[in-house]
Each structure stands twice: as C-alpha cells, then as structure tokens.
UniProtKB/TrEMBL annotation, chains A, B:
InterPro entries: Methyltransf_11 (IPR013216), SAM-dependent_MTases_sf (IPR029063). Residues 47-141 form the Methyltransferase type domain. This is Class I SAM-dependent methyltransferase. Pfam families: Methyltransf_11. SUPFAM superfamilies: S-adenosyl-L-methionine-dependent methyltransferases. Keywords: Methyltransferase, Transferase.
C-alpha cells in the first residue's frame, strides 16, 4: 500500500497553506538545490516522480525540455497541477512509481523531490529507475536526510532548554532501517528511514555512478527571508544524490 | 603542522593499553570492515597511511601482497611496528601523508584506517592519493563519522538521563567544517570535521568513483564480547569509503 497522506483533507489543506507561504523550505532550499544539479534540459525526456502541484514540470518545459512525465499518488495534487501547470508536453499521471511501467531507456533525466522516503522498497524502485534511464542519463533526487529520519519518535528531534532555545539535534536508532511514523502537519505520516550507506550502495549496485552529493545549506538571502532556516547549518534536513547511468 | 598526539607519552600509553585489551573497536569493528573491503591482495603494491603498530601491513603480506609502504607520523608507533611486524617487504616511514611523495601510478591499493580525520587539507591529500593510485586501483579509508565529529564540544556526544542511561546522541554544527578539539584519552586531541558531501565530492572531483560505503555495525559475536559496542546500532562512529580510479 503506497502512502497517500496528501489526499488526507486536513493534511492537504495544511500542506497547501505551507506551500503558499512566500518563504518556505521548498522555495528557499529544496528547489534551488534541485535546479542547480540539473543538466541543460533542452530537448530532454524527463520523468518527475512525486510531481506534486506541477511547478517543477512547468519549469522543465520553460527550460526547453521536450516532454515531462509527471507522476503523483495524490489526486488533490494532480488536480491543482492540471489546473495551474497544464501543458501539452506534460503528461500528469495518478501513479505510484512502484506501479509505473515504461520501456527501458525511456528518459534522459529522472527527478524526485522529497518523495522517495515514502517508498518502502527502495531497491525495487532504484532498479526500475536504472532501467528506465538512458545511458548517460542522470537521476537526481532529494530525501529527508538520514540524520533527520533516524530516531523513532513522534516528537521533534530538536532538544530544547527551558527557555526553548535549541540545544542540539537528537539522533538515535540509525541502523534500524524501515518505518517511521512522524507527526508532520497531522499525526501518523509514514516514512522510511534508510542509512546513507544503503542508499549509495543500492544506486551503485544498479549500475548508477555517484556524481554529486549535496546537503544543502541556506543562502544568506534565504536566512534573511526566513530566519528559522538558519538551523539547517546545525544539521542537514535534506540529502540530494545525483547519479549517472 | 601535522598533529602527532601519538607521541604524547600520556596519550600513547593509554592508547597502547586500549589496543592491548582483548576486545576493542579496532579489532571488533574497524579492522573486520577494512578487511572485508580489500581486493585480493596477491602481488599488489600497497600504501598504508597511518599504519600505527604495523598489524595491517603484516596482514597484507600474509595475504600475499608484494610490498607495503607504511607511513605514520608517530615514532612511538613505528618503533613498535618495526619491532613486532618487521618484514623485508614492509617499508616503514616516519612521514605525514601531506609530505609524502611518490611517482604517479605507484600503488594498486591505498588504505587508511582512522587517520584522515587528522588531516587539515583533505582536498590536497585526496589529490595526492588519486595521483599515486594506478588506474583500476582502489583506495579504502575509514574516518570518524561526520555524525560523530560534527558537534563542537569537549564532552561526550551521548546525552544521558539521571540514571546514566543513554537517551540519544547529540548532533550540532554539522555544516561548520574544520577543527574540533576533543578529549579522547587526553585533552586537546585535534580532529577535522567534514560533511559527507564534502568527502564524497572531493573524491569524485579527483577522478575517483565511489564503489562502496560502509557504516559498520557490530556482529552478534562482537556484542557478546564487548556489550557496550551495541550502541553502534544507535549512531555510526565510523564511515568507510571505497573508491576506484
């Protein structure tokens, strides 16, 4: 069963409100990093896994991609995507990556922003991706950083003093891979923790070579716009991996 | 100035006592992992950086390596190495890797156990290593894990409750790379913290391709022999990276 928390109406409305804020982690940290890792997109066939509201698919076409196949498991998300970012060269599909089938060597570039930590069988999904990617193609994805997903807790991983100053970040259970239930906007959001070694070795095993790793830090401007983002310097929340076939 | 804490007599005697214990992290965790990552050693030319007391150099010859160049900055360590593990095909040299020079393509295999976190200029050292390594050669090293070196503190990174049970492990200052002064056996041991991204990208930039990552976990037997090592399951202390040229 693939998690589809984005079709939980309470979650979805809160998530939408978060994304509609002028300054958020997506706009200040995740998307700038993803875009910095992209190859020149001109004429590329792209697969975007977990496309959400379609902004990234639209961005790819604005940068001269030939076609974007954009998957998401949430009909809420896709309804917005189709309304706001419809385009004859974007094919939105209500589909989990685990169930998606495409011929070998279909894509020049596969991307996924903060969705693969929802996937239970990482090995299977990486195997599919490696097969769908063309030789010399690139696959770039971000996930919540294993430092952030490791600890089994329903609470915040930040530890505070009595005045609610952040003392440090708590890590635990690092080698217990698998399910984590977390409270993020609503209770019971399900994610999967995997170690850095597991992610890297899975990619390598499937014939993908590690090209770049990014643990993004906010720019000075981002910190001015959203001062709370400065805590990213204290521990990474996101991990980006770019690989080549 | 290259750190040479191993020639501090108080440190050295304590370190020696630790290593002479029947069960320690070196024997139960670090060395088994290093050995599991080695290629078949028959006829290889090996460079071991931070060879310490020479056990690993000796192991390589027992496994049919052709020759081992074994570097260490500590004359204390090398005195023991030359006494216990002297061999006509081991060349012990009192030398920091930063000052070591060898022709290009000199070695089939370069190893370093828990020494590169003492190196200030990682980029320079990786550049040297990439040059000294033969095409298709392998470089395998372990360092203290960035999760463990991140926090600026003279204290233990474990956070305890009142009964001295470990609550969780503390991470902080992850993106502040550079000097860390720690108390380990004596005060003021100097190490360098680097992020996972920095280490990986430095290797890739110098033409080395990531072959395997290991964040070692103790075996059941190791936990029986040294129960306190079970805490390695809660956060990794060591990071191994194996690359190929």
């Amino acid at each position: 069963m693939k998690q589809n928390i984005y079709d939980n109406p309470i979650f979805f409305n809160q998530y939408k409100a978060l994304r509609e804020k002028t300054y958020n982690y997506n706009g200040l940290l995740e998307q700038p990093t993803m875009k910095s890792l992209l190859p020149p997109l001109t004429n590329l066939q792209i697969l975007d896994i977990g496309c959400g509201m379609g902004e990234f698919a639209q961005y790819c076409l604005e940068h001269h991609a030939k076609h974007v196949t954009a998957l998401d498991v949430s009909s809420n998300m896709l309804a917005i995507a189709k309304q706001k970012h419809a385009h004859p060269h974007i094919d939105y599909q209500l589909q989990a990556i685990e169930d998606y089938e495409a011929p070998s060597n279909s894509f020049d570039c596969i991307t996924s922003s903060l969705s693969l930590h929802y996937v239970q069988d990482f090995d299977k999904v990486i195997s599919q991706i490696a097969q769908m990617l063309r030789p010399n193609g690139v696959f770039i994805f971000s996930v919540e950083h294993p430092i952030a997903t490791a600890r089994h807790t329903m609470e915040d991983n930040w530890i505070y003093d009595e005045s609610h100053n952040r003392l440090h970040y708590a890590v635990d259970h690092y080698h217990e891979e698998g399910l984590r239930q977390q409270t993020w906007l609503v209770d019971g959001v399900v994610k999967y923790h995997r170690t850095i070694a597991t992610m890297m070795n899975t990619l390598i095993t499937h014939g993908l070579s590690i090209d770049k790793i990014v643990e993004p830090i906010p720019s000075k401007e981002a910190i001015q716009q959203l001062p709370s983002i400065e805590k990213e310097l204290r521990r990474p929340s996101f991990l980006f991996i770019k690989v080549k076939k």
